[in-house]
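I am writing to request your help with a piece of structural work I have in hand. The matter concerns a single protein, recorded as an amino acid sequence and a row of backbone structure tokens. Could you please explain, in whatever detail you think fit, how the structure tokens follow from the sequence? Thank you for your consideration; the sequence and its tokens are set out here:
>
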Amino acid sequence: MSPALKFDEIGYWSEIKLAILDDDAQPYNHILLSQDPKLHPIYIDGFAGAGHHKAKGSDRIIEGSPTRALAVRPPFDFLHFVDIDGARVTELKKLSAGKSNVSVYQGDCNEVLTKQVFPKVRYQDFQRALCILDPYGLHLSWNTIMAAGKSGVIEVFLNFPVMDMNMNVLWHNSNRVTEVQRDRMTRYWGDNSWEDAAYPTTQGLFEPMQEKASNEEVAEAFRVRLMKSAGFKYVPKPIPMRNTNGAVVYYLFFAAQQRTADKIVKEIFAKYARYGEIPNG
């Protein structure tokens, strides 16, 4: 391990997320290749990390998504790992040393994915991709999400960071929210229609009133947006990831182009649904 690197500590909800990804990647490749052996399954990780994590409150080391992706069988033909942190990128390069089918990039994933990675995933080259977009907060641009959707060949697991939103943007008194935080939300959402989703207007006794929407209502508005604006054909209800206090940290979305992929993930989400309701359950 690089002396400049400290493994990220992750909570149990992140371990559940990794288990969900495990359950999807193998059947994804198996079904893809059974449909057409000429297809090339590709893995893309926009916030890859160092390849390993440490369990919160202990010294237990947990394999991260890049390490797990490298072990998937049938294997991915190509893998793209992106991280903005130099020490993490160094670890990713060690992890993938000697593997000519792995590319590691250092930089903002929004720039790297839209300019260097997504353009390489092409339908006419028989390529199909599974992309993980798992930021800790509002670090993702809608342009990146939309580029994946418009490609027609990229399926996405997406972190909808509702805790960051609630802490910094989605306040009951929206007038107190700074322009900087509003801009972060608009960049993630794609436009300022998030304000209508977060603060719907209802008719009061004497005049229209605005009230803050629930987390579920905001997430549902985003789910609809993924289909209508980003171009994904299938977006099942997301699974809430809660901390040990029961608070929703984020919603894990899946956005797909293929009915089969949608069916697989719906079954996986149903399997893990109780973890979204009962902390440590």
